[in-house]
Amino acid sequence: MKWMIYGAYGYTGKLMVKESLKAKMSPVLAGRDSKKVLSLANEHGLEPRVFDLKDASKFLEDIEVVVNCAGPFSKTFSPMVEACISTKTHYIDITGEVSVFEKARNLDKAAKDAKIIICPGGGFDVVPTDCLALKLKHQMPDAVELELGFDGFKTPSAGTAKTVLENIASGSLIRKDGELITIPSGSDTKEIDFGKGDRLAMAIPWGDLSTAYTTTSIPNIKVFTSTSRSQLKQLRNLSKVSGLLSTPWVQRIMQKLIQWKVKGPDADAREKEKGLIWGMVKNKAGETVVGRVQTNNGYIIAAVAPILMTQKLLSSSKLNYGHTTPALLMGEDFITQLDGSSDWQLS
Q1: Structural domains in the chain plus CATH codes
Q2: Is 277 left (phi over 0), alpha (psi -120 to 50) or beta?
């Protein structure tokens, strides 16, 4: 059975190719850039396919699972997942974009009818936090509030930086009473002990605002990341010119600069930058449960987790077709089973 990595020549795609070979798996390598696809495929002795997403269905007829690594996913998700539905191909990606997760939730019936799985968010966003959300929900079934947060993610790839740029222009998000609410960037802050003492953290438009709602049905959700006073000040200043940042020509210029300058963390940085994941649930009585887990570097998770998810989709004869989340597909302990992760710490 064949599976494909689309966007295989990007930062995370290349890491995933190497991890696939370690796992003795042979993905088809695909993307739009023929020179990059052919070079990477020849280097590793793998099958190449070159195509634009508007033609994706022509190239997926014999593919069981697609892992989409080509961001921004706000542009690549819809055409790829439409092709997957038409060819009955399972879909996984490594997005962190709330809008993409919301689109995926609305495709549940179409996925069920096609007898496929649609599971975006197979990377650092949202595997660790999604697993923690489900763990906490099981600890407190009557929870009505969920807060999640992470620390240690410092060096972005070009794809991640592009998504951050889009988010700065559109503001931040929280979920309140089941609805997504836009708030100014940097406006919601708190002190969080991720495991090494209190750190300043701010609410961000992280994918769990959608996926954790699907996973847990908790109606009030916030996601935080650690920050510094100076970073918070810079973000608030940028948010004042969000109108300018959101214009197409500014976005195009900034995206090109990011592609040119941002290369992503090298092997040494990936080894040093570990993830500290925190979460808290609260019920109507004001009772709380706090959970923490330490993880490997986010890009290592993004390279490894989708491979394990693909293995399940290729090997399982009993799948609950439709839209799902990583924790619902793989179980709440999935993150603790990955190399470099600690056990759960609950209090």
Answers
A1: 2-124+299-332 (3.40.50.720), 127-297 (3.30.360.10)
A2: beta
